[in-house]
Amino acid sequence: MITISLCMIVKNEENTLERCLSSVQKAADQIIIVDTGSTDGTKQIARKFTRHIFDFEWIDDFAAARNFAFQQAEMDYILWLDADDVFLEEDLSKLLELKNALDSGIDSVTMKYHLAFDDQGNVISSLRRNRLVKRSNQFRWIGAVHEYLEVGGRIMDSDIAVTHRGDDRDSDRNLKIYMKRQSGGENFSPRDVYYFANELKDHRFFEMAAVYYEKFLNDGKGWIEDNIAACGKLADCYHELGEPAMELASMLKSLEYGPPRPDFCCRMGYRFLQKNDYHAALYWYKQAIEIPVPENSWGMQNLSCSTWLPHLQLCVCYDRIGLHDLAYRHNEAARQYQPDHPSVISNKVYLEEKLGLVQEAETAAVSSTS
């Protein structure tokens, strides 16, 4: 059995830290908490779980803080989490099984990172992260903002998931760090350019975001998944700026990096749907359903675009061309994922009346009681 040091950096996390630590403490042989300047009860909560609490002066550098936390670890492997992450019960069980069975020759274990959910609890946004790493390899964090863990060697992709339960506190923090670095004349890495553009877009600075997405793509040094994502986000910016030609060009540019993804197909389907070209829209929404979604993709996945959303739009398209039976089938397919979605419910009522299904059901009910 391997041993695990849990390493975390925190600041003012009194509302989430206990939930996080409670969810993982059975798997952690050592818990390292590095506080970067809390003014609330974060440290008091941490003391319920560990005596390994350290202070680290905040220098606007997440990698520096995480590397300091990793330096305090003493166990075989290091697990890292943020305070607004949790292991659900099923995933904790899988982690405990992994702890008992892991080959000590494994250098890193990746885990899914579930970021967003719909009203039914279905995962709609997910990616992979190197989550459990061998301490003796001394892997390092890179990047002041949106940092990543640079690993190598034998990497195992697990089916364990970490679930994000965050909120929007400090939503301006990363943008402020980037702006400060920019004003100081720092040369951004390609990855920093991409994430700076993301922060600008998220804060609705669409024109400036477009400039940085264009720079990122034109430099040609980005990771392929970031390139594809940047094309979609650049298209969003041009949509907000009222430039449809540039929006389309950005969408099509993603095809330079590989075959179409479900989110691209949904974008194309929506474009034709807006033009009332229902047959073209049907083609693209069908593609969104049929394209396989890679299980171990490291890129951000919008799972809505391969599940309920294209089915719902196919329902609309088939209804518009008078094929109500097919419209009903696709609405039912969407209903398997989103039974309480207002559009799904209203479509069901409308199409059942259109197809005479309500009357048939009532007739059958009367017959069964006769």
From TrEMBL:
Keywords: Transferase
Pfam families, per the entry: Glycos_transf_2 (PF00535)
One Gene Ontology MF term: transferase activity
Top-level taxon of the source organism: Bacteria
Xref: Gene3D superfamilies: Spore Coat Polysaccharide Biosynthesis Protein SpsA, Chain A, Tetratricopeptide repeat domain
Keyword Transferase assigned: yes
InterPro entries: Glyco_trans_2-like, Nucleotide-diphossugar_trans, TPR-like_helical_dom_sf
Domain Glycosyltransferase 2-like residue range list: 5-106
Protein name: Glycosyltransferase
